[in-house]
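[Meeting: bench + compute handoff]

Bench side (C.D.) handed over the final construct sequence. Compute side (W.E.) agreed to return the predicted structure before the next meeting so the bench team could plan truncations. Sequence as handed over:
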Amino acid sequence: MAPMAPSPSALWRFIDKDDAAALTLVVDTPAGLYTRRVPPALPLAPGVEHGPAAEQAAHRAAAAWGLPDFVFRQAAHAQKGSGLRELGDRLLLAGHRGAVVQVKARTIVPKDDTAEAAWIKKVATKAMSQAKGTVRQLRMMPADMVNGRERILNIDGNAYEWIAVFLLDHPGVPAGTVVTWQEIGMPGIALTRRDWDFLFDQLRSTTAVLDYLFRAAKEPSVPLGEEPVRYYEFAAADADASPPQFDTELVGPGGVAYSTPLLPQAPAGDDGTQAHLMIRLLSEDIALSPLKPPLTEANRVALLHDLDRLPVGARTEWGHLLADMLRDVPEVPEEHCKWRFRRMLHEDDTRQLIFGAATLLDSRVKAAFQAYVLLRHHEVTTRTGLTEQTATLGVLLTPRRGGNSPWDTTSIRVEGHLDLPDDELHLYRQAWNRTPEDGTAVPG
């Protein structure tokens, strides 16, 4: 669903009488009143200087609730005399969007509100200037950055659309403090650490958080500490929005239009089950799998981003479906293999996500799944005409007998023009376009 502008909504906010660092929001929704308690920011690590500890805590929140593969710091500092400054910023990178995160901490006892507001404006201006410098340097000279799994990627700043994030760790921000700064040539947003933690806890998706930051940065600034209020204004607007028109024939006969608000009102996974964790578990499978040449860490991160693009509001339903598929596919006679599929084409027509489940994993199943992914990519790009912009990610689950995990995860990602020979296409169509996709059992 396309983002909507915020609309007026019935929303009340209260400070927790037992914890002034917490915030309680009461939202009036069509389903009735909804209460969301926003806890304080994650505690700082003991024995670490305040400033670095605040940076580590922000990094930890993004890695734990998002994915550590998308959170970066500089791998090695520039040598003295090189003419290049050290990149001390934390980066959030997913797809073609990036955030430069400047964490500033109040390390002394706060003064009066007027003095604190002036100090906050001063450090915000400095933070935005530093973020601008980081982007400029990354565009002039790519740098090696290390992500939350201690893997090094070379980051070219020209490959990303950037936003600057001023992240404040402060024990008592004066009420109503709105931060302003001079134009820096890219979007910017000011948050408290509680705001930052709230967004990641609410969405559990780095891609969704980045999309939110870019969306919010287009609107007038809100007082520091009130980002959850703006979030729920956006969420209310999304819930009221009409679903966009979508050509279901792009995925062939039987396609169904599905729409969910970009920003859910309930936190991710709030249905009381663990179904939403399926996408995180699959991401972990992919993140921890050994890479076979010529694949690189950049290829892995691109694949993880395609998986992370699955809308937050759809993840629980998909998680239930994947669990059902895994339970169902073994129920076939011996020497047979049962397949089940679910696929989704994003509304921009350039990202296709395919989940499959099969009875077993062997060379024939791997080859058949690859044929399925290649065929569906070819069909979609032929229908849309957006060949060069389109990527398709296929993820196959197969039950595992023994071991630490109940399933094996196999993934395939393709993009652009595949140049498939006509005889191969004929074989793929013979295999996959002659029977229903869901619940098909064929000889093994």
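W.E. noted at the follow-up: Residues 248-263+273-443 form one domain. C.D. will use this when planning the next construct.
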